[in-house]
Design goal:
Blueprint lengths: L8 E10 L2 E11 L4 E5 L6 H8 L7 E6 L2 E2 L5 H7 L1 E4 L11 H8 L7 H14 L1 H5 L10 H13 L5 E5 L7 H16 L3 E5 L3 H7 L2 E6 L2 E7 H6 L1 H7 L11
Parallel strand pairs: 3-8, 3-9, 6-7, 7-8
Antiparallel strand pairs: 1-2, 1-4, 4-5, 9-10
Helix pairs in contact: 3-6, 4-6
Length: about 250
């Protein structure tokens, strides 16, 4: 008898409302250990709501969220971080009046009693983003947009998460910085962190993802491997300018 592998993160029939407005409707997806799964969609599709609900910032109306076999539906947000899920939010949301290093230290709050983990996590952040080491004593508000995005991701990694939720990491960045950020996301995944990536740049997202979902008006419209979505004419027309894109390199 074949025993099915339990997903690392499992979202089942998830529905979320803001008052009378239904933001998510019956959304189901999963993230396996070692994967990058991307969620594509236009503004207002519900992508950020999905991540915020997994992080327990937004309450669940119906459905369930399970992480490593444990239900998260009634778990408070700070406990989700303790369990191993970290989020890098849309718009970066760095603490502008604190230094780069102070921002990183705040990301390690849930691990503050484990000094070795904090030291290792900071070393990892500085290795991934050398510019943060150079600017460690600089106020975060004086960084460029790309540097702030690096800081937001580095801050999320400070809790040594097993799952990283990334919300629009390419937003507002120049093309050369977008390529750099996506190369680093690939490296983070190669180091053992599973990633749920929300992104409007379908071309870049599908170039590094293993699987993907398209969210439209709060519901999943399409799902498949990255290759399947790349070759889907509907995706090509809506997100890729009518052109297929290159496969993910391993």
């Amino acid at each position: 008898m074949k025993i099915s592998k339990q997903p690392l993160l499992l979202v089942e029939s998830l529905s979320v409302s803001y008052g009378a407005i239904e933001a998510l409707r019956d959304v189901s997806l999963h993230l396996d250990d070692g994967e990058i799964v991307t969620v594509l969609g236009a503004n207002g599709a519900g992508k950020t709501t999905l991540l915020n609900t997994i992080s327990r910032i937004v309450p669940v109306k119906a459905g369930s969220i399970t992480y490593r076999g444990q239900t998260l539906t009634d778990v408070p947000a700070h406990r989700v971080a303790d369990l191993g899920i970290a989020q890098s939010p849309e718009g970066r949301k760095v603490f502008s009046t604190l230094t780069v290093e102070e921002n990183l230290n705040l990301g390690a709050y849930s691990k503050r009693k484990d000094k070795d983990t904090v030291v290792a996590a900071k070393a990892r952040a500085f290795d991934l983003f050398p510019i943060l080491r150079e600017r460690r004593r600089q106020l975060a508000g004086t960084l460029s947009g790309g540097e702030q995005q690096m800081l937001a991701i580095g801050r999320a990694l400070m809790s040594a998460p097993r799952v990283l939720l990334l919300d629009e990491p390419s937003l507002g960045l120049a093309p050369i910085l977008v390529s750099q950020i996506f190369d680093i996301i690939r490296e983070i995944n190669a180091q053992g962190t599973s990633i749920l990536l929300v992104e409007q740049n379908a071309r870049k997202a599908l170039s590094i993802a293993h699987r993907g979902h398209v969210l439209e008006n709060g519901a999943i419209l399409l799902s498949g491997t990255a290759d399947e979505l790349r070759s889907n004419p509907q995706i090509q027309d809506a997100y890729l300018g009518g052109k297929a894109i290159a496969k993910r390199s391993s």
